[in-house]
């Protein structure tokens, strides 16, 4: 048995103890409150109390979800329907109905019943297995005497009445401790697995949640691409198109002037050439904004490298992708613009003097991190560039996380599930 | 001078052929795809190749890759790469072998026939022709990083033109000063940046480019 395993087994003691306290008090109190407030709905008070109580129940269940993930690596999915937040009495009634109609609410109730009994027992076993050894040795070291005088006591199946039986109790306690060292982590996991069995949403609820998410991201995708097309249309209309019109006009005038006023015609020709150069520059910038040419030619890694070379702040790019591997074009493009936005933020707002980008692929997802040593304070709230990135990644089930405490450093990480080819 | 030309868009290819022929270049081959280019470069031994970065069939940076491969096979083979966009990344790859005889220009530069032809001749002669945009990207990075060894604004201007691959005579003409004045500026630049002084125009340009890219 190695040190990490032993540490886990010993830690299971206090953890189990804490869990058993939370199970017995939290679940009993909240279960009772829920039943009472639902019972009071007919006389009106329950309508006000029920949403409040159910909110506490959800917090209670979510706390257990968190502990399950942190202590035993057990992931318990949750699928509460979104609760509307309308003000006033009508809002309370609506909240109450939505919550009572949500199957997750009834799953929570069912779980609390099991949690205060079976859950409590499984949580209590690890500390008991550890503490019984101490009790056995306390008996063996002399405490057996007053107990024997009072008629003896049962240490599990050993009747402690003499030094000999007290030693037997100590040996038994030690055996329990050894057993605990092996089974404690499993017992704790068992506790969480019981919770998962009862709390995890049904397949139907999970699918419903997935449909909601897909509907939302699809709306976002449609909105984003419509806005993007609108921007491109405007840029073309005001830019290259207008310049071409001017050029055509100039050429028409030149045609008329070429024999009567060659000097003037030459001057207009120079203007026409300038217009065409400007139109090209504008088109080039526009193309870069739609799909950067390096991305098409070289893929994500080199496109990010080329991007880094354009930045005024020294930027270090490290890439850990299979050689010449490419993701699908839309994924590459989303990842590129996400990196681009994160880099722009770092340059514009962070006051950083060094930036780094890290690209890697693992477990079926492309991972991108952008970090800087600037002053931090970046946020993803509505209207920020990063929230746009978040929505864009959402279309691919990608996620974005920002860690940017005031004072820095900032770290933006993105993960996009995709396949490389 | 014998040229191999690779450009997939018919209008541009045709235009370039006409322009080059007008300036007395001999077009050995005008091709439109990567494999054809590779064949032409190995079989025809041109004095200079003019290559579009993006070529069929892959429509990626096939032209650039063919040019780089041909230069590995025949070091110093003069290649002028044309593109709709310029990237420092590509410029660095072209310059990496330190052999010279390299050009990298935006396609817009063909608007000015005289300057473009000058660039082709320079590259064919073992010199370099870097697009002003590439040089500006390099410079803007360096200037922000450090004061560039205390160059005067005039010296910076001269260095920018030199990095594009122009000779002292061409710079003098451009800035409307004597060639002697430019020679003085360039030697000042080399002393201030701590670069080895050389009489060879091409060596000097490569040294400046390497210095700029080091940041």
Automatic annotation (TrEMBL), chain A:
<protein>
    <recommendedName>
        <fullName>histidine kinase</fullName>
        <ecNumber>2.7.13.3</ecNumber>
    </recommendedName>
</protein>
<dbReference type="InterPro" id="IPR025828">
    <property type="entry name" value="Put_sensor_dom"/>
</dbReference>
<keyword id="KW-0547">Nucleotide-binding</keyword>
<dbReference type="Pfam" id="PF07730">
    <property type="entry name" value="HisKA_3"/>
</dbReference>
<keyword id="KW-0902">Two-component regulatory system</keyword>
<keyword id="KW-0808">Transferase</keyword>
<dbReference type="InterPro" id="IPR011712">
    <property type="entry name" value="Sig_transdc_His_kin_sub3_dim/P"/>
</dbReference>
<feature type="transmembrane region" description="Helical">
    <location>
        <begin position="28"/>
        <end position="54"/>
    </location>
</feature>
<keyword id="KW-0597">Phosphoprotein</keyword>
<keyword id="KW-0472">Membrane</keyword>
<keyword id="KW-0418">Kinase</keyword>
<dbReference type="GO" id="GO:0016301">
    <property type="term" value="F:kinase activity"/>
</dbReference>
<keyword id="KW-0067">ATP-binding</keyword>
<dbReference type="Pfam" id="PF02518">
    <property type="entry name" value="HATPase_c"/>
</dbReference>
<dbReference type="InterPro" id="IPR003594">
    <property type="entry name" value="HATPase_dom"/>
</dbReference>
<keyword id="KW-1133">Transmembrane helix</keyword>
<dbReference type="InterPro" id="IPR036890">
    <property type="entry name" value="HATPase_C_sf"/>
</dbReference>
<feature type="domain" description="Histidine kinase/HSP90-like ATPase">
    <location>
        <begin position="330"/>
        <end position="420"/>
    </location>
</feature>
<dbReference type="Pfam" id="PF13796">
    <property type="entry name" value="Sensor"/>
</dbReference>
<feature type="transmembrane region" description="Helical">
    <location>
        <begin position="164"/>
        <end position="188"/>
    </location>
</feature>
<keyword id="KW-0812">Transmembrane</keyword>
<dbReference type="InterPro" id="IPR050482">
    <property type="entry name" value="Sensor_HK_TwoCompSys"/>
</dbReference>
Automatic annotation (TrEMBL), chain B:
<dbReference type="Pfam" id="PF00196">
    <property type="entry name" value="GerE"/>
</dbReference>
<dbReference type="InterPro" id="IPR001789">
    <property type="entry name" value="Sig_transdc_resp-reg_receiver"/>
</dbReference>
<protein>
    <submittedName>
        <fullName>DNA-binding response regulator</fullName>
    </submittedName>
</protein>
<dbReference type="InterPro" id="IPR016032">
    <property type="entry name" value="Sig_transdc_resp-reg_C-effctor"/>
</dbReference>
<dbReference type="Pfam" id="PF00072">
    <property type="entry name" value="Response_reg"/>
</dbReference>
<keyword id="KW-0804">Transcription</keyword>
<keyword id="KW-0805">Transcription regulation</keyword>
<dbReference type="GO" id="GO:0003677">
    <property type="term" value="F:DNA binding"/>
</dbReference>
<dbReference type="InterPro" id="IPR000792">
    <property type="entry name" value="Tscrpt_reg_LuxR_C"/>
</dbReference>
<feature type="domain" description="Response regulatory">
    <location>
        <begin position="2"/>
        <end position="122"/>
    </location>
</feature>
<dbReference type="InterPro" id="IPR039420">
    <property type="entry name" value="WalR-like"/>
</dbReference>
<feature type="modified residue" description="4-aspartylphosphate">
    <location>
        <position position="52"/>
    </location>
</feature>
<dbReference type="InterPro" id="IPR058245">
    <property type="entry name" value="NreC/VraR/RcsB-like_REC"/>
</dbReference>
<keyword id="KW-0238">DNA-binding</keyword>
<feature type="domain" description="HTH luxR-type">
    <location>
        <begin position="144"/>
        <end position="214"/>
    </location>
</feature>
<dbReference type="InterPro" id="IPR011006">
    <property type="entry name" value="CheY-like_superfamily"/>
</dbReference>
<keyword id="KW-0597">Phosphoprotein</keyword>
């Amino acid at each position: 048995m190695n040190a990490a395993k032993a540490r886990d087994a010993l830690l299971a003691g206090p953890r189990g103890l804490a869990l058993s306290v939370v199970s017995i008090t939290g679940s009993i109190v909240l279960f009772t409150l829920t039943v009472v407030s639902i019972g009071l709905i007919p006389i009106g008070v329950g309508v006000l109390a029920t949403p409040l109580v159910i909110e506490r129940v959800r917090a209670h269940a979510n706390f257990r979800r968190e502990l399950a993930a942190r202590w035993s690596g057990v992931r318990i999915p949750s699928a509460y329907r979104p609760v509307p937040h309308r003000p006033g009495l009508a809002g309370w009634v609506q909240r109450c109905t939505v919550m009572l109609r949500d199957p997750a609410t009834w799953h929570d109730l069912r779980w609390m019943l099991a949690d205060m009994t079976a859950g409590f027992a499984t949580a209590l076993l690890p500390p008991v297995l550890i503490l019984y050894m101490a009790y056995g040795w306390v008996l063996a070291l002399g405490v057996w005497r007053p107990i024997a005088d009072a008629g003896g006591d049962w240490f599990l199946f050993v009747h402690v009445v003499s030094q000999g039986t007290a030693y037997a109790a100590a040996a038994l306690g030690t055996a329990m401790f050894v057993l605990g060292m092996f089974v404690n982590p499993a017992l704790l996991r068992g506790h969480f697995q019981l919770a998962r069995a009862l709390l995890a949403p049904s397949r139907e609820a999970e699918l419903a949640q997935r449909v909601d998410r897909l509907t939302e991201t699809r709306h976002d995708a449609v909105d984003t691409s419509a806005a993007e097309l609108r921007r491109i249309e405007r840029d073309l209309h005001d830019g290259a198109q207008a310049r071409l019109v001017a050029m055509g006009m100039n050429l028409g005038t030149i045609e008329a002037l070429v024999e009567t006023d060659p000097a003037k015609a030459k001057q207009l020709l120079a203007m026409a050439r300038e217009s065409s150069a400007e139109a090209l520059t504008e088109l080039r910038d526009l193309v870069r904004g739609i799909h950067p040419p390096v991305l098409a030619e070289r893929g994500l890694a080199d496109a990010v490298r080329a991007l880094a070379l354009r930045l005024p702040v020294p930027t270090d790019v490290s890439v850990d992708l299979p050689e010449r591997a490419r993701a699908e074009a839309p994924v590459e493009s989303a990842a590129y613009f996400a990196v681009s936005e994160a880099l722009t933020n770092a340059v514009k707002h962070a006051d950083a003097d060094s930036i780094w980008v890290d690209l890697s692929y693992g477990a079926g997802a492309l991972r991108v991190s952008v970090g800087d040593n600037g002053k931090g304070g970046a946020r993803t709230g509505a209207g920020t560039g990063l929230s746009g990135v978040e929505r864009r990644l959402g279309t691919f089930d990608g996620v974005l996380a920002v860690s940017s405490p005031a004072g820095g450093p900032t770290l933006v990480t993105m993960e996009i599930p995709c396949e490389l080819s | 001078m014998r040229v191999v030309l690779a450009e997939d868009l018919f209008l541009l290819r045709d235009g370039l052929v006409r322009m080059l022929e007008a300036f007395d270049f001999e077009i050995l081959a005008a091709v439109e795809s990567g494999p054809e280019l590779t064949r032409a470069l190995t079989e025809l031994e041109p004095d200079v190749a003019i290559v579009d970065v993006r070529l069929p069939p892959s429509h990626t940076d096939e032209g650039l890759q063919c040019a780089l491969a041909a230069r590995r096979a025949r070091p110093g083979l003069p290649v002028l790469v044309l593109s709709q966009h310029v990237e420092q990344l590509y410029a660095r790859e072209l310059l990496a072998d330190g052999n010279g005889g390299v050009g990298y220009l935006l396609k817009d530069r063909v608007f000015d026939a005289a300057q473009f032809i000058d660039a082709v001749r320079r590259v064919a002669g073992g010199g370099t022709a870097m697009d002003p945009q590439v040089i500006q990207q390099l410079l803007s990075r360096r200037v922000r990083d450090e004061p560039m060894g205390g160059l005067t604004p005039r010296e910076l201007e001269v260095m920018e033109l030199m990095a594009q691959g122009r000779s002292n005579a061409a710079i003098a003409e451009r800035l409307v000063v004597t060639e002697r004045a430019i020679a003085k500026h360039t030697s000042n630049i080399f002393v201030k940046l701590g670069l080895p002084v050389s009489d060879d125009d091409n060596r000097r340009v490569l040294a400046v480019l390497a210095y700029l890219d080091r940041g």
